[in-house]
C-alpha cells in the first residue's frame, strides 16, 4: 500500500468514526471497532487523532460484560462550531452550533420586500458580523439554506425578480477559507427532520416546503438525494385535480395556485400584517386567529390549503413509496385544525394512516439542517483542522 493510499484510508476511517458519533451519540471504543469492522489497534489510533484534533473527547462510561466499565467517546463541544444560514424571502437567520449539536448563538435580520443581490449580500455580512462577535469557537464549516435549488450556481427567484444571480462570492465572503455547502430550504429542512427520533427506521422520506410556492426534497437513509426522480418534475406545478385556479405558468390546477401564501391571502384580503421579518408566518398566524374567531373566509382558506396539501402528499407518496412526509413553511402556523384535516384527507385517499409526521423542529428545521451541512462538510477532512 502506498503512503498516499494509507493516508486516504486513515482519513476515511476518521470520517466514519465521526459520522457514527455525531449521528448516534456516545460510543465506546469496543462498540466502534465492532460497528466499523476495525481492529482495536486501528480504532485506538484513529480515536487518538480525533481527540488530539479537538473533535472528540472521553465522556462518561457504560458497564462492560466483565471487568472495568467502558469509557464512552462523545463530540467535543468546546473548540469548534458550525454555522447554519437560513435565507427566506423576508428574513435571514444564522445559527452556530457546537459539534454536539447544541445551540451556541444565533442572529437574524430582515430582508426588504424586493431585495437586490447587493442588499442580500450586505445583510448576510452584517448579520454574520453580529453573530461572530458573540462566538468564541472556531468555525469549521458553513451551511447555506437558500430559497432556490442549486443556489451556488445562481439564484432564480420570481418574487425577488432574480434570474440566475450568482451568489458564490457572497458565500465565500462569509466562509473565508473554510468549506461550505448549499441546499435549498426544502433540502435543509428534509435533512434536519430525517435525523429526528420520530423518523427513526424510516429510510425514505420527503419534505414539503410551502411558502411563496411549493418545493420538496427527498432523504434516503438520512441523507439528501440531490437527484430527484425526473417524473416528479416541479412539485409546484403538479396538477391536483382542482381545476378552478389559474397558475402563473398558465395552466389550471397546479399546486402553487392553491398552496402559495399569495393564494391563501387572496381568500382573506381583509387580513393583513406589516412588512418585516417573518411576514409570511405572521400572516398565517393572523389568518388562523381570524378563523378561530369565526371568520368564514379565513376558515375556508385554511381548508383549501389543507385539501391541496393532502392531494400533493398523496401524489408524492404514491409516486415513490414514501414512508414519511414532513411539512414546513407557513402551514406550520395554521393551527391544529389544519394539521388534523390534512391527516384525515390523506388517510381517506390512501386507505391507511397518514404518513405526515411532526418532528417538533418547526420553522427552525431549515436553519438546523443548514448547521448540519456546515458541521458535516467542516469535518469531511479532519486532517484539514491540523493544517489550520
Describe this structure as you would to a colleague.
This protein folds into 3 domains: 73 residues, Arc Repressor Mutant, subunit A; 132 residues, ATPase, nucleotide binding domain (Nucleotidyltransferase, domain 5, 2-Layer Sandwich); 159 residues, Nucleotidyltransferase, domain 5. The strands form 4 sheets. The protein has a 5-stranded mixed beta sheet. A 4-stranded mixed beta sheet has the order 13-12-11-14, sandwiched between helices. The chain has a 3-stranded antiparallel beta sheet with strand order 1-3-2. By secondary structure, the protein is α+β, with helices and mostly antiparallel strands. It is built from 13 helices and 14 strands. The model has no long low-confidence stretch (mean pLDDT 89). Helix 1 crosses helix 3. The radius of gyration is 23 Å and the shape is globular. It is 42% helix and 21% strand.
Q: For the record, what CATH class of the largest domain applies?
A: Alpha Beta
Assign the structural class, choosing from mainly alpha, mainly beta, alpha/beta, alpha+beta, or little secondary structure: alpha+beta
Q: What is the CATH fold-level name of the largest domain? A: Nucleotidyltransferase, domain 5
Helix-strand string: HEHHEEEEEHEEEHEHEEEHHHHEHHH
How confident is the prediction overall: mean pLDDT?
Answer: 89
Major pleated sheet: 5 strands, mixed
The total count of strands amounts to 14
Amino acid at each position: 500500500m502506498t503512503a498516499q493510499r494509507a493516508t486516504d484510508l486513515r482519513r476515511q476511517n476518521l470520517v466514519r468514526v465521526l459520522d457514527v458519533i455525531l449521528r448516534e451519540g456516545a460510543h465506546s471504543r469496543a462498540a466502534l471497532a465492532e460497528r466499523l469492522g476495525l481492529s482495536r489497534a486501528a480504532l485506538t489510533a484513529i480515536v487518538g487523532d480525533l481527540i488530539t484534533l479537538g473533535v472528540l473527547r472521553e465522556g462518561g462510561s457504560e458497564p462492560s460484560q466483565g471487568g472495568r466499565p467502558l469509557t464512552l467517546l462523545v463530540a467535543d463541544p468546546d473548540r469548534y462550531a458550525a454555522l447554519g444560514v437560513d435565507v427566506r424571502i423576508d428574513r435571514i437567520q444564522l445559527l452556530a452550533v457546537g459539534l454536539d449539536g447544541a445551540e451556541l448563538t444565533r442572529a437574524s435580520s430582515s430582508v426588504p420586500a424586493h431585495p437586490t443581490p447587493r442588499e442580500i449580500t450586505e445583510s448576510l455580512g452584517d448579520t454574520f458580523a453580529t453573530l461572530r462577535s458573540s462566538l468564541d469557537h472556531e468555525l469549521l464549516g458553513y451551511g447555506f439554506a437558500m430559497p432556490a435549488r442549486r443556489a451556488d450556481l445562481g439564484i432564480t427567484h420570481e418574487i425577488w425578480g432574480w434570474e440566475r444571480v450568482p451568489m458564490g462570492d457572497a458565500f465565500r465572503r462569509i466562509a473565508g477559507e473554510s468549506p461550505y455547502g448549499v441546499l435549498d430550504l426544502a433540502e435543509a429542512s428534509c435533512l434536519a427532520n430525517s435525523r429526528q427520533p420520530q423518523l427513526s427506521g424510516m429510510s425514505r422520506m420527503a419534505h414539503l416546503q410551502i411558502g411563496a410556492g411549493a418545493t420538496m426534497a427527498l432523504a434516503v437513509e438520512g441523507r439528501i438525494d440531490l437527484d430527484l426522480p425526473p417524473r416528479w418534475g416541479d412539485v409546484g406545478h403538479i396538477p391536483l385535480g382542482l381545476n378552478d385556479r389559474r397558475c402563473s405558468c398558465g395552466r389550471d390546477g397546479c399546486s402553487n395556485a392553491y398552496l402559495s401564501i399569495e393564494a391563501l391571502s387572496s381568500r382573506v384580503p381583509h387580513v393583513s400584517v406589516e412588512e418585516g421579518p417573518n411576514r409570511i408566518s405572521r400572516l398565517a398566524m393572523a389568518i388562523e386567529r381570524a378563523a378561530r374567531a369565526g371568520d368564514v373566509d379565513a376558515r375556508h382558506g385554511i381548508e383549501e390549503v389543507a385539501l391541496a396539501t393532502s392531494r400533493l402528499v398523496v401524489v408524492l407518496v404514491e409516486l415513490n413509496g414514501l414512508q414519511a412526509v414532513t411539512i414546513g413553511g407557513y402551514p406550520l402556523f395554521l393551527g391544529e385544525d389544519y394539521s388534523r384535516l390534512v391527516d384525515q384527507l390523506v388517510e381517506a385517499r390512501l386507505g391507511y394512516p397518514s404518513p405526515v409526521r411532526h418532528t417538533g423542529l418547526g420553522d427552525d428545521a431549515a436553519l438546523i439542517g443548514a448547521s448540519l451541512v456546515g458541521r458535516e462538510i467542516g469535518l469531511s477532512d479532519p486532517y484539514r483542522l491540523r493544517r489550520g
